[in-house]
Each structure stands twice: as C-alpha cells, then as structure tokens.
Amino acid sequence: MGAFFAALIATLLVAAPSAQATTPSPSPSPQNFQNNISGFLRDDARAPIPGVRITAKGEGFEGTATSGASGSWTIGVPKKGTYEVQLDESTLPEGIKLAEGQENPRNVVFGETSTQTTIFAFGKGIVVQQGDFVQDLTNRLVAGLSFGLLLALAAVGLSLIFGTTGLTNFAHGEMVTLGAVLVFGFNAVGLPFWLAIILALVGGGLFGYAQDTGLWKPLRRRGTGLVPMMIVSIGLALAVRYIIQFNFGGATQQLPGAQSAEIQLGPISISPNNLWSLIISAAVITLIGIVLLKTRLGKATRAVADNPALAAASGIDVDGVIRIVWIVGGVLASLGGILWAYYRPGVTFDMGSQILLLIFAGVTLGGLGTVFGALIGSVVVGLFTELTTVFGAPADLKYVIPLGVMIVVLLFRPQGILGRRERVG
Amino acid sequence: MSMHAKDSTERGIDYMTDTRPIAAGGNTPGCKKRDPIVVAENVSRSFGGINAVDVEYLEIPRHKITALIGPNGAGKTTLFNLLTGFDTPNSGKWQFEGNSLAGVSSYKVARMGMVRTFQLTKVMGKLTVMENMRLGGSSQPGERLSKALFKGLWGGREKEITAQANVLLEKFKLDAKKDDYAASLSGGQRKLLEMARSLMVQPKLVMLDEPMAGVNPALTQSLLDHIKNLKAEGMTVLFVEHDMNMVRHIADWVVVMAEGKIVAEGPPGEVMKNPAVIDAYLGAHHDVDLGDAEGIKELEAELEADEESVVGTEDAGILSVDVIAAEVAQEKEQK
Amino acid sequence: MDYSSILSSAIGELISPTTAAYALAALGLAVHFGYSGLLNFGQAGFMAVGAYGFAISTLTFGVPFFVGLLIAVVASAVFALVLGIPTLRLRADYLAIVTIAAAEIVRYLVTTSGWTAVTGSANGLADFEDGFYSMNPFPEGSYLGMNNRDFFIRVVGWGLVVVCCVLIWLLMRSPWGRVLKGIREDENAVRSLGKNVYAYKMQALIIGGSLGALAGMVFTLPRGAVQPSNYGTELTFFLWTCLLLGGMATVLGPVIGAMMFWVVLSLTQGVLTGLIESGAVTWLSTIQAGQLRYILVGIALMLLMIFRPQGVFGNKKELAFA
C-alpha cells in the first residue's frame, strides 16, 4: 500500500514537467477557451449559409464569429454561464431571413457540457423544424441507446467490482476519464490514432490492475470494512481527478474527428461517431455477456460474486478472479471514456465524474451487483437522459431526470429491476 | 420478573412442576395445545423458488420450553425471522396472545413481549456491557427526542433500568464486566449478554436462536440453568438448537422441522424415538452433527451431578449416538 | 517569502466564518455517520437547501431574517424526509448513492435557466444579507483587526457552533443517543429490543441535515452571494475529510477537523505560492499549486481512512468500525 501511495505521488511528480507541453492549445482557434457556443446556419433547403456574423456577450466577455463555408460557427467563451447571442441580420445573404418566432438576440445558458449549440432557423415564414415529432423521437431514441450503452460499459465494470468485492467504487469516474485523456495524450505525442486507442485501453487495464494490487487487495487483507473502503475510493477519486487536471489542464480538448456532420440512415439521422459508439459498445457488451455465461472464467466470476467464501472453498482463485475483474473493469471504463469523449464531445479532466452518478444510477436501477441489471439500468438511464428533452424538459435538466427516476424506483422496488431480496438475521 | 412468579404461585401453579398435558389432543405435527401463546397458520416463505418455510399449522405452548430442531437448512431461523417480523412471508397468518402479527413490524412485535436473539450474536461491541443492557430497557422517556435534552425528565427511569440491569448482570455473572466494552467479551459471554439484554424488555416469550452455539462448555451449564429459570419466572421459551442433548435436558416440548415443514412434535423422549425425526437427521442428512460420544457422556455426567438441572424437565434419560444409530439399524432391518 | 503573512492568514482561517460553516456541516455528518452510521454523501445538498431556502425566501418573498432562517431549516428537514423515506429501510450504500444524487439534483435545479427569476441560475443570488447585518449590535470600529461586520458574522457563526455542539452533546449522552449508537452497530439487534429504528434514523437524518442548512447560511452570509458551483460533490468530500480528521464519533472532532483542514490548506497554499514567487520552485505554476491542494486532500482522505480512521484525536475503541 505504501508503494501505491509512492506511485501515486511519483506519477504526479514525473508527469509534472511535461505539463507545460500538453496544456497549451494546439491552434489559435476558439478552443483557447474551455467552453464554446456553436451552431450551423442552414437555409430552408438545408444549404449552408456562410459569412454571417454572430456575437456572444455575457460574463464580462464579448466574442464574435463568422459562419464558415459549411455554415458552422463557434464562439469560444471563458466560462460556463449565460450569454446573449445575436445574429447580425444585415450580414445575411439576399432573400434569406430568420424564420418567424426565432428569437434574436437570444440567451444561451450552459448546462453541464462545455459546448452549447444554438440553432437559428431561416426561411420564408417557416417556424423551427419541430413539426416532425416522430422523427425527433426516433433520433433521440437512437442517441439515448448509444449513450446508454456507453454508460453500460462503465456500469458493467462497476457492477462486477461491486459484485466480487462489495466495493462501491467512487473512483470509477476517473477510470473513465483516464481512457479519453490517454488517447488524447498518446495522439498528441504523435502516435497514430489506432495505436493511441489500444494503448489507452491497455493503460485503463493497467490502472485497474495497479489499483487492485496496490490498494484494494492489501485493504481486503487487513479486513477493512466496506464503508471505509468506499471512503478511501472517494479520496482516490479526488486525488486522481486532480492529478489528471494537474497534467492535462482545465481546458476542453477534442479527439481526432470529434466534429462530424450527421448522416441519414433511413428515417434516422445520426452522427457517424454515435453510430460507431453504438456498434462498438453493443459488440463489447455482448462479448462480456458471452464470457460471463459460457466460459470457465465467467462462471468463476459469478461464483465469486455469489459467495466468495464458498467459491474459495471450491477451489476458485478468488484473488485471481478479482484481479481480472479489476483489469476488465479498467479496460471497459477506458473504452466508455473514449466513447464519452466523442459523445459529449470533448475531453476534460472531470468528464468521468460528470457521468459517475449516471453510472451509479444505472447500476442501482438494475440492482446492485447484477451485471445484466447494470446493462438494462444503464440503457434506461441513457434513454431517459435523451428522451426527456423531446417531451419538453429543459435541456439543462436532462441529467436530473434519470437521477430522480432512480430515487423513485428505489421507493417502489428497492432491490432494483433485476436484484434479489436479501435474507435478514 | 418476580411479579410473574408471584402470579403463578397465587394461581397455585408452579410452572416448573406443572405436569398437565401440553397438547390438547394427540401429539401429531401441527396439533392443538391446551394453552397456546403463538398460533401460526399456513405460513410460507420461498427464496428463489425453494420453499424455505412451509408451515401448515403450529402452536407454541405457553409457560413451557419448546425446542425447535431440524437439520441445517430446515427453515428454523427463517421461521424465527417470519414470526418476529424480520422477514415477510409469501402467505399465511400468525398471532401472538390472540393478536394478529401479519404485517406488524419487528419492533412492535418486540414491544408486545415477543423478544428474540440471533444465531450470530448481536451485541454492540463499541458500547459498554451496561449500555448494552440499558438499551434493552423498555418505556424510557429519554429515548424520545422531545425529552432527551433534559436529564431531569429521564434520569429517574434511567436509575430504575440500571438497577434492573444490575440484578440481571449479577445473575448472568457479568457484573464484573459491566463497564467494559462488549467487544472485549468472549463468545459465550456475548451469548449471555444478548440473552440478559433481551430480558431487559421484560418479554412474555423469549425466542433464542442457537443459544449454545459457540459457547464454551464451561458456560453451557449456566446457560441451561438460565433458560430453565426463565420458565420458573413465568416466561415462555422457544429455542432453536442443534445439540439433541441440550434439547433433551431442558425442553418440555420439541418441534421438528425438515425442508421447511413441521415433521414431528411431542415431548422430547417421544420425539427422539420418532422414525421420521431419525430419518430427517440421519437418513437424509448424514452431515448433521449430533456431537461426539465422548462429549455427550461428559455432559450427561455433568447434568446428572447437578440436581437443579433436571428440575421441571422430563427424566434425563440416555441419549447417545450409538443408541440412535442402533435404532436406525433396527428400523432398516424391519424394512 | 513572507512567513508572517502566511502564518497570519493560516491563523485567520481558524476563526473564519467558512471554517465555522464547515464545522457545523461536519457536525451534522457526525450525527449522521459517526453516531448513527448513516452514509450521507449529500451534505452539500443540505447546505445548498439552507442557503437557497434563506436567500429565496428573503429575496422573492421578502420575509424577515428569522422567518428566512426558519424556512431554510424546515426546507432541509423536508429534504431529509424525501431522501429518508425511500432509503432508510435499505442497505447503507443505497443512502450514500441517493444522497449524492439528490445533492446533485438540487444543484442542477438551482442552475437551470427555467427559474432564473427565482434562483438566479448559474450566477446565483446576492444581496440578501442586509436583514442579518442590520441586527449587528457592534458599532463601526476595529475589533481584533476586523471591521464590525466581519466580527459580527464570526461571533454569530462560532456562537452557533458552540450552541449546536452543546445540544448534540446533550442528545448523544441521553438514551436517545444510546439507541442511535446501537443502530450504528447493528440495527436488527436494536429492532429486536422494540425500538423503532426507522424513526430514529429519520430523526438523525433531519437533525444532521438541519445542521447542514445552518452551515449553508453561515457559509453564504459573509459572501453576500450564493452560487450553485459552490455546492458540488467536492464540498461534501471536504466535509468528510474534516470529519475524519477530527474523529467522527465525538462532538468536538468535526470542529477541530474543520480548523485543521483550513489551516493546513492555507499553509500549503501560502508556502507553495511563496516558493513559486521566489523562484525556488519552477516546475509548478500557481494554478497547479491550487490543484495540488485538492490532490493532497484526496490523499489525506485515503491515508486517514486507512491508517487512522478514528481521526487525529479520536478513540479507536469507540469507533463504529475498525
């Protein structure tokens, strides 16, 4: 354990000199700021409108941008807050006007994400494209599924760790962050993208391994209770989160290919990144499911989760299984982090802790410690997060609703969707 | 407590020597009792499709010591949990002194006078022995938030329960330890403390879950005596036990469970000879520990030497592994 | 490096209103966790409910100071009820997750732009402290180097700490406190003795939460502003660090813990900044020095929990777990 703390501090000190190398932004783009307001300008025929000037005022700051050839515009702003965004109508091309009912200037308020999108609609008296409720619903459903599955990657790992060791790991959010930060770091030093991803996943697994070997296993040996271990994980979360910030800086960075236009797949419009995320997480989760159900390792894992003492007595290497669970949990969390970096989009030092509670909500909804419950719970959380905006909830409250749902579900079905009731006494 | 004893003598019945029949009819599983304190009907509880408890009908006789025995996994502890409100059955109704207990929470059950102990002893290790005892005291005004701030409002009652606790601790030979943290007690002492603490509630029915488990043999004798004394003071006792010899020596009545059901009932001597019981213990479940022959002989010698220990129980009799084994062998030959 | 100013600002932290607020909130956590075993990871939420309850009732409804105070405490009691009803029957870790989620829900709700008129959204609320300072009995002047406003808030804040400590001490030595300590160790055993465990846990949750609400007000009054970003999960974790520093099952532990927390933070910050400015340390920027202290808090929390869970002054024998 002493070694673990030494390592923790060493990471901090060794990495510190390089801090200056990674913190400055790569280009004089609006990404000098951590946060930005952006949007696309398209006319009613969906053709881009370039050369329009937009200003944002607020928080003692004023910024201007001009829409590019693709119609996109971005204004970097120093902090999250409320900004008055105005489109200079005199710079609009001939024959194009703002659609009726389009507020200009309008107030843009930041929620949890560092990017706020605001869309100005144009046309001849056409109101915003909100008529197609069904289309909006299907788009959000798919997005919610994609988000839910990426949450599930982290939630399954958290649930496996909880099941086998009883630990509620508050540092799981930092394991998510680490995946995205490592990809950004490896990519920034010039490694090819695919190699950066592989190294980030390996790094996530190593972090899981190091945590178990250096910290949790010695604590289990000492017979430390679950509540003290939970508090230790909070300390670890704080330390790791700020070690990452120490080295990575407070700014939002983008992974390669983070911005992409939406593509049309039948009735659904989805960004290729989201589509990939959906496919990758679905495939990985299926793989985990098969491993758990069919292989010796999976059966051993379930046996340990069910009753560690009995599993040990029947010749299963409990510590070995737990070690593998930590490694797999680390890899899954890293992968979830990379996908989350594309979903938001952006990499920040606290991106993992932002979704930690949603991951918890997924795990709790499904029933603490059941892997398939965690999967279902996470998808429910993902869908709720995305769908609430369709039904008129304010966008800056979209993370509130799944958390509220979790509390209500606990009221009526405390064991979660798939959990079992426990015997007392 | 002494009040109970007075009551009994006034009515001219000494519970220790009361030899009237316990059952109202024949000693069949689920039979009616002359004077039941607990009546359970169709109580069932299943875990994941397996019926842990499935009791059609059961009455517990008042002012008697009833033993609940059965092999591991027979559902004894689960039945305890169900009766005391620590678990909810899938179906069934049960009553205590005529009051229905279905859906009554565990703390209310305890307040009605039905107090239990646990298989894994639950003492508060970080509280002193005396604080553990005081925690059991009933109707304490100082336990109400509205009065807790003012010692004047609860100091009097505190003195009363402290005196009550001192008497009990002395009886249970824990008085020397009363200012120690309970964590420093031995396993057997914790069992004693837990039992003494449950008596602070002044219960009518004491339910002991494996009171002898893990207790140092040197202490078992005094534990047995304590259990018998409870009856002398007018309480009813229901206890779960694995060790047949203990059961034999202190129980007035034995209820046998196997696979969640009541398979036999009756006075200990009769039940021990019941083929269904022997089958439940030795036929289907060879893993049940009846204790080794040496231990049994030793204990029997001890119990015989102590006159007190046989008061109010059936004749001590002889029971050892070889006797039961011989009986089983006989059974098999007959078949 | 100016050692005397580093030292004097560290000593200033000892009696700062923020330290008093931390002490009150950590005392609430001691009632929750140290005495009753309730895992409240949402104390920041209780503080936010107190601070906003007071600020909103003052600004939107124009109520006098003491009515605002009452509203803040009642609001936190209602918050405790809402959290306690679904979770107090469940295993301890459910309460942990629900409280931390509820605290975040509160923060999101006061940040949302939909209710800017009432909550001020991300910018928060300001100018609600006049009612408080109008009661200041100290005429203008210098009191131990402070002006009368600074002195008044310190007197009130620390006075509140003393009163609350005495009240909690009285409660915990009573049979009521004994039942709570019993619940902390084994709630089923307490239940089997005829005590309504659920009601006791709820009372403890409400009392600790009300202390959180008072802390929220003491925290926010000297600032003259309440902002949602101050009430994130990190605040809760700092409070836990204070609690663990001082010892969790004692009345004075949280107070001493809060003082130690702020003095140590102020010292490390002062020394680091001094070293950087003097050029002795070049591998750190002042921003990074600020981040370093969060890292230190995290590591301190882990080390305390592992090696000295009873706190710097606590008694290991009385610890709920070991």
Keywords:
heterotrimer; A: 425 residues; alpha+beta; Immunoglobulin-like; ABC transporter involved in vitamin B12 uptake, BtuC; 2 domains; 4-stranded antiparallel beta sheet; 3-stranded mixed beta sheet; 13 helices; 10% strand; B: 335 residues; alpha/beta; Rossmann fold; 6-stranded mixed beta sheet
Briefly characterize the structure:
The complex is a heterotrimer of chains A (425), B (335) and C (322). Chain B is of the alpha/beta class. Chain B has 13 helices and ten strands.
CATH architecture of the largest domain in chain A: Orthogonal Bundle
Mean pLDDT of chain A: 82
Number of strands of chain B: 10
What Rg of chain B, in angstroms, do the CA atoms define? 20 Å
Which assembly state applies to the chains in this document?
A: heterotrimer
- What structural class do you assign from the helix and strand content of chain B? alpha/beta
- Which parts of chain B are unreliable, with pLDDT below 50 for 5 consecutive residues or more? 1-10, 283-292, 302-328
Low-confidence stretches of chain A are: 15-31, 125-129
Major beta sheet of chain A, specifics?
Answer: 4 strands, antiparallel
Global geometry of chain A: elongated
Strand content of chain A: 5-15%
State the fourth-level CATH superfamily of the largest domain in chain B: P-loop containing nucleotide triphosphate hydrolases
Q: Order of strands across the biggest sheet of chain B? A: 6-7-8-3-9-10
Distance between the termini of chain A: 35 Å
SSE order of chain A, one letter for each helix or strand: HHEEEEEEEHHHHEEHHHHHHH
Task: Give the C-level CATH assignment of the largest domain in chain A.
Answer: Mainly Alpha
CATH classification class of the largest domain in chain B? Alpha Beta
